[in-house]
Amino acid sequence: MRSAPSAVHARDLSVQRGGRTVLDALTFDVRSGTVTGLLGPSGCGKSTLMRAIAGTQARVTGTLDVLGSPAGHRDLRHRVGYVTQAPSVYADLSARQNLAYFAAVLGIPRADRPRHVGRALHATDLTARADALTGSLSGGERSRVSLAVALLGRPELLVLDEPTVGLDPVLRRDLWHLFHRRAAEHGTTLLVSSHVMDEADRCQRLLLLRDGRLLADDTPDALRQRTGAATVEAAFLRLVETEPAT
Length: 246
What we know:
Elements: E1 8-17, E2 20-30, E3 35-39, H1 46-54, E4 60-66, E5 69-70, E6 80-83, H2 95-105, H3 113-123, H4 139-151, E7 157-161, H5 169-186, E8 189-194, E9 205-210, E10 213-218, H6 220-227, H7 232-242
Helix pairs in contact: 2-3, 2-4, 3-4, 6-7
């Protein structure tokens, strides 16, 4: 049986900005229907890579295919959900109104919008706050409104840039459960970035970035076995120590 095609296929992917190499010849695949973590310290290039995959990053060279099409292709508009670190919703609308607006932008039929909106609110635990102005919500709640927008229409690929930062432990746990349910029940592919190494074990596979270079592309267990480390954070440090000098 042939394996499913990769949701993201990158070969020699590079990004230059201001005369500086932000991403340096990355080659990797993100398997369809999996939860893949993109981990590394702040400033290592995670957000740049996610923008490239979402099709919003300039000066990208190399090969970058998303769901079988070049990144940024118009046919991907309804197939990819992208959540940035900063909430990208309207403060003067309620959570429900934001979702209704973006459902219309996505072309979801009017009769189907209440169902899609209700499902996204429930998935992100926002039902009780659905009619509060987004500007009055906490930072974590606003981030969840952005995530709810990304869930509209059941996209095939979710690109989530540090979606759990600043959230309490219970909500972080619940969101990771949601991510895995989306992958298991709907075949959704999730690429989730974080600079918190203890989130690594919540992922089925990891991409470890440092200074724009890919240190590892493997499962958490395989990384620990390969480096002889007890944790992914320790494995990351050992990989850094053994990385060839440049």
